[in-house]
Design brief:
Two copies of one chain form a homodimer.
Chain A (H helix, E strand, L loop, with lengths): L6 H11 L16 E4 L3 E10 L11 H17 L3 E12 L5 H17 L4 E8 L4 E10 L16 E5 L4 H12 L8 H8 L5 H8 L4 E7 L3 H8 L5 E4 L8 H10 L3 H7 L5 E6 L4 H7 L3 E8 L3 E4 L2 E3 L15
Parallel strand pairs in A: 3-4, 8-11
Antiparallel strand pairs in A: 2-5, 3-5, 6-9, 6-10, 7-9, 8-10, 11-12
């Protein structure tokens, strides 16, 4: 396909991938604003997915870009225990991103949207210096009627994860070093970086378990996100066993002579769910959320320990460094 | 002030300008998603405000940038006849945009948000190649219970505007040519480009007049937006009288040897409201919406005429040219 020379050409491409009919969208794309039917309480999140900051065209396929740009937002809704309801998309396209590229992006995005029956209700298209996708997504409460938030864990609560940590950071490292040639050797790590799992069903199931007190998604690494998750005045005693880490995390750390547990603790962008719960609820949690595993306990005093040693290191701050440029 | 070196520094600056308490926001910024209370039906819009595409730092003050980035979204809600309820903000900051700059941006944005009692519920901060602000805003229906949409005019309906057309295009032209030195000579035109009016009260009042059939905001110019506003199969006979145009539009056209009526018809970014109504409602409209003026009639056949002559020219297409770079 060729260069997109008009806004109408872009809109036609979007119409091909995203249906204009949805029961909860009385007025779809094309007016000054969309009209959507909403429950009385919704949760809403907005995240940017920006070329050379969050992804590189060198090793993300257009489908990967489309899928992940939506997935990182859906992960925030999953971490609220919410049912995703819809999204809006603002994008910029540089001159060298042609219709074939955008067809792939929209295809990847529509794959995830279709699986969740999510309408794209509108947004804004612009020329810009690089490929950028800013998604705003919203969701409603599930059958439990509640959203899961941060700052809810109590001393003695169990801390648990749903999903791996440290795996996407390995993916980033090997993709930066070798591009897509790294994929055969590091299939799980590359997939964790290129196409992170969204855990909507797990989030919903966890919201339905009364003993689950709070939930967030680990986007900047467990080390950086734990302090944001804990209630003021509390801390955490984290126990990460090498055997519980993904084999690719262990193999990569061995190759670099690094501590695999520390790498797993600091690595960002896995979008695992981090929860706090009454320890008595752990069996229910592990049955309801495949991939759930206990990682420690909420402590009665501030500070975080990892396998018995106090840690001060943090993960990823967007204004200190970026995962692609570091 | 100095360079912003951490995400926390940025968040502190945002907290200083945007209060964290709002009756309709049970869970404010800082979690995976915000939780907002919503009416059963909301309208939602998202627009990007991008450096060197929509504005230049050479002649927009930081306050102008903050104000206009929100205003263009609020204008979409006004054009729905909606009550604005809240917004989310995604931004990118290049290295050379420091805390003083962002303090000004947030101050300008908060000025408009405070006037409308709008909460900033969350968003995303990133380093990026240029200053970009992507706002998602939403609103609910006013006392009339309805939203005003496009495609509703019937043959014989009156077409009307609330606000000037062509004025912001003059502002863009003179600001591009002379920077802020142009302001004393072209105060209204420069203001129309730098700080467009938002017509929330007018939109709400119009939604309350049963004879008003539909409304949109004219962002790309009357020539480009009329075809988007008219119902399929209908057209428009537009009558623009030189005397009804802003004196700065007439003066600028005279200086360039251009037709002022054509300039007013094609000029974009005024964010005037364009409406269609039963002609019998015109007195009510002009009483309820200060600045409203009739501009013609919906025709029974496709095509647009301007002062009796058929027009084919269009306004502004983001993928054909941009207002700042053309």
């Amino acid at each position: 396909m060729s260069r997109i020379t008009s806004e109408d050409g872009f809109l036609t491409l979007i119409d091909r991938h995203f249906p204009r009919r949805h029961a909860a969208v009385p007025l779809h794309r094309g007016d000054d604003a969309a009209v959507i039917e909403t429950p009385g309480r919704v949760c809403l999140t907005a995240d940017l997915f920006l070329e050379d900051v969050h992804f590189r065209r060198a090793y993300f396929t257009p489908k990967d870009i489309g899928c992940k740009s939506l997935a990182v937002n859906i992960s925030d809704l999953a971490a609220m225990g919410a049912v995703p309801l819809g999204f809006a998309l603002v994008l910029t396209s540089p001159e060298d991103a042609d219709a074939t590229f955008w067809d792939g992006v929209f295809s990847g995005m529509a794959g995830l949207a279709d699986a969740l029956e999510l309408p794209l209700v509108g947004g804004d298209l612009n020329r810009g210096p690089s490929v950028a996708l800013a998604v705003t997504a919203w969701g409603g409460p599930g059958p439990s009627g509640r959203f899961l938030t941060r700052g809810q864990g109590r001393p003695g609560d169990a801390l648990f994860l749903v999903g791996d940590v440290g795996l996407a950071a390995v993916g980033l490292f090997v993709l930066e070093a070798h591009g897509r040639d790294a994929i055969p050797d590091w299939p799980a790590a590359a997939a964790a970086h290129l196409r992170p799992a969204v855990r909507v069903q797990a989030g919903l199931a966890l919201a339905g378990i009364p003993g689950v007190r709070g939930l967030m998604d680990v986007s900047d690494g467990l080390g950086a996100d734990l302090p944001r998750f804990l209630a003021p005045g509390t801390g955490a005693d984290i126990r990460l066993d090498l055997k519980a880490l993904h084999p690719e995390v262990a193999r990569h750390a061995a190759a670099l002579g690094e501590d695999p547990v520390r790498a797993a603790f600091l690595g960002g962008e896995d979008y695992a769910l981090l929860g706090a719960a009454d320890p008595a609820a752990l069996p229910d949690i592990m049955a309801a959320a495949p991939g759930a595993w206990p990682i420690g306990t909420v402590a009665a005093a501030p500070g975080v320990s990892l396998n018995g040693r106090s840690v001060t290191g943090r993960g990823f701050d967007h204004f200190e460094s970026t995962p692609c440029s570091s």
